Amino acid sequence: MNVTPDIVIIGSGVGGSTVAAGLAASGAQILILEAGDHIADLPVNRDQRAIFQRGHFRPKETWYEADGKGFNPGNYYNVGGNSKFYGAVLSRYRKEDFGILKHREGVSPAWPFPYEVLEPWYSRAERMYKVRGTLGEDPTEPHHSLGYEYPPVPDEAPIADVRARLKRKGLHPSSLPLGIDIDTWLAKAKTPWDAHPNSKDGKMDAETAALSIAMRHPNVALQTNSRAVRLETGQGGKIEKVVYVRDGQTLSVAPKIVILSAGAVQSSALLLRSASDRYRNGLANSSDQVGRNFMNHNASAVIGVSPTFRNTSIYQKTFAFNDFYLSDGDGGFPLGNVQLLGRVSAEILKGSLPSAPEWLLNLVTGHAIDFYAMSEDIPNPESRVMVDGDRVILQWQRTNWTAHLALVAKLKQILKSIGFPIVLARAFDKRTPSHQCGTIRIGNDPASAPLDVYCRSYDHSNLFVVDASFLPTSAAVNPALTVASQALRVADHIASQDLSFSRIQQD
Ligand SMILES: Cc1cc2nc3c(=O)[nH]c(=O)nc-3n(C[C@H](O)[C@H](O)[C@H](O)COP(=O)(O)OP(=O)(O)OC[C@H]3O[C@@H](n4cnc5c(N)ncnc54)[C@H](O)[C@@H]3O)c2cc1C
Description:
- The protein is an alpha+beta fold.
- It has one domain (7-506): FAD/NAD(P)-binding domain (3-Layer(bba) Sandwich).
- The protein has helices at residues 14-23, 48-53, 115-128, 157-168, 182-188, 206-214, 264-273, 346-352, 358-365, 401-417, 480-506; strands at residues 7-10, 30-33, 63-64, 70-71, 101-103, 106-108, 174-175, 220-223, 226-233, 239-246, 249-253, 257-260, 298-305, 319-321, 337-340, 368-375, 384-388, 391-395, 422-427, 463-465.
- Bound molecules: flavin-adenine dinucleotide.
């Protein structure tokens, strides 16, 4: 690897690893700087008391609210980023998500391009992440030019029973598109995979599905424990230097192209921290939108309990329904998506209810079915990431909360009607920024968006931001596949244009 690589990618999560996989065959010298290390293959990876009660994997990090109150966010720093812990639900945004969608509490704006533009890369990303699923079950499903290569993960018997009950009510449960090899996962230990770290145990995450492809090429190098702290500009406003810290040492590298993929909070914080005399607002920020429009889905766990239902399933997370995605079912506004959660055990539940004895929680969870209700959060410039020196300040202003409450109420009603008389619900808050996005959005107008449609900064011609920051809307589906698809699209764009430009300069 050259000391001056062609491309430096900051972060090895879904955006960074997938763009690296897409660029690797170009022959460009690529250096990936990753703040964290590899997740080791240890028994603790499946120890639910360690994960959920003792927070074994949670970073020792504090973010702050605008009033100075600190909190510990579930944002993970390791090779593969948050995807090492993800539920591997790899859904496409709906076609309608790319257009204007009117919600109860505002309007979700149109993307700068329609669904059809991204569609071919959705298909490629599904193949790269070995997504299992089936077409034709979900009425909101957009057109797929290629079907899924692998069949869906099968329902275990109690889950098949609940799916059938929902169907009898006229709903349309559909198999979740999942990046998981369930046999390999269960061979290690009989646990669900949601929020459990993956060390090559069958979860298709950014490391196992994308980085592994990139690393087959000798022109790609990964440097772990290397945290980018600042970008510096040179002539013509180009990014000249990436300054990073490794083992307490401050180092720098001067690539031709920088791809920032540190996640929606950390990428925007890095640009804001890189303010200089010339760029007082931070880098890539002539629109004043960097850090703004922070979104994180409105999401709740909704648990139905019935003394006559026995849930013996291990992994549970196999179907979703979108019957209230585009409308509330009565011609009203969209409410969102409902999908199963990874199976909630007594050990997991005790993490949220520490004073409850595990034997009691065991009794409850043995008779429960666990859902995840998710509603769109709409971009709002006052919902934002800011920095104060090294501090990250997250001022999340939820939008569309009444639609979410309506979705949860609807789900409660449905669960009661299919035989679960007790239904408990709990919303996820800022400590779970899993679906963070929107802070450095793409758009056609440099006055209102920091990035063009290929995630290139309008202000710095050799800077790209390829992670969940670029998403102009959050929709109400899990974000990772859309991030990966756009990453492949951007990689093709860079390989066809900017790289040759960089090589000419090199010569
Ligand atoms: C528990 C959990 C469950 C989830 N389930 C799902 C799901 O089922 N489906 C779905 O679509 N999404 C899911 N998500 C969200 C999904 O993981 C993210 O949307 C996705 O990982 C975002 O990709 P990214 O590239 O933006 O950031 P990340 O994947 O988080 O990657 C950012 C990377 O940058 C590194 N980094 C950060 N700062 C620096 C720095 N200064 N210098 C160098 N490196 C840095 C980080 O260590 C990390 O590796 C889940 C997330 C969590 C936490």
